[in-house]
Task: inverse folding
């Protein structure tokens, strides 16, 4: 079983601040103000990272009055986890296969 992992999504999640945001949103839905408090990042920097996460489909927005709340899309994370699980299973099988040297 050959599998590939979504490299674009990994690139998006590889940034430490974006990974921190995803981790925080895995616990609760938060607005930008909360995320600024939790991460210590400047609002403009945080907004840019949230835009990347939104465009990658990792988070979605929920307007609430004058605030915008962000929530994690667990299906996207579960899909990526499934890709890694498939990769691990493939590695288990491949351990039995050894290509002969020419």
Result:
């Amino acid at each position: 079983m050959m599998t590939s992992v979504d490299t674009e999504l990994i690139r998006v999640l590889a940034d430490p601040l974006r990974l921190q945001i995803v981790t925080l949103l895995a616990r609760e839905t938060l607005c930008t103000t909360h995320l600024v408090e939790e991460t210590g990042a400047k609002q403009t920097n945080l907004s840019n990272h949230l835009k990347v996460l939104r465009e990658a489909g990792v988070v979605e927005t929920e307007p609430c009055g004058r605030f915008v709340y962000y929530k994690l899309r667990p299906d996207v994370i579960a899909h990526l986890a499934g890709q890694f699980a498939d990769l691990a299973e493939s590695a288990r099988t491949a351990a039995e296969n050894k290509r002969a040297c020419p």
Q: What stands out?
A: The longest strand covers residues 59-64. The CA atoms of residues 3 and 87 lie 6 Å apart. The chain has five helices and three strands.
